[in-house]
Write a structure and sequence with these properties.
By secondary structure, this protein is an alpha+beta fold. The chain is globular. The chain starts with 6 loop residues before the first helix and ends with a strand.
């Protein structure tokens, strides 16, 4: 199923799939926050390192967004994620707060 995503969120999933740490960091605001797996990361340097760390730890993954809605002022995208990690495949929830054409905050939950 193909869904229509806002351009900044589409850029996130494209950079996550095909890009490196710099490409991924570029879709976020300079002081963006990512909340993932109990960690809070802030800023481009932390986002670049997060991309390096999870790529090294889990290898390539396939993320297929299949649902989008609004929840508590955030854009919620649900995606099917598969790869070589414990619990794969799994559906994850990505809560985005956008600022202009960038992502100001991303929280990833089960």
């Amino acid at each position: 199923m193909t869904i229509k995503l806002p351009s900044s969120i589409e850029a996130y999933f494209t950079a996550e799939r095909d890009g490196g740490p710099d490409e991924l960091a570029a879709v976020f605001t300079e002081n963006a926050i990512i909340k993932d797996a109990g960690e809070d990361l802030m800023g481009h340097a932390a986002i670049r390192q997060w991309k390096v760390d999870y790529s090294n730890k889990f290898g390539p993954t396939v993320t297929e967004p299949f649902f989008i809605t609004k929840e508590n002022g955030k854009t919620l995208v649900t995606a099917h994620v598969s790869g070589e990690f414990p619990g794969s495949p799994i559906d994850l929830r990505y809560f985005f707060i956008l600022s202009g054409d960038k992502i100001a905050e991303l929280e990833i939950t089960v």
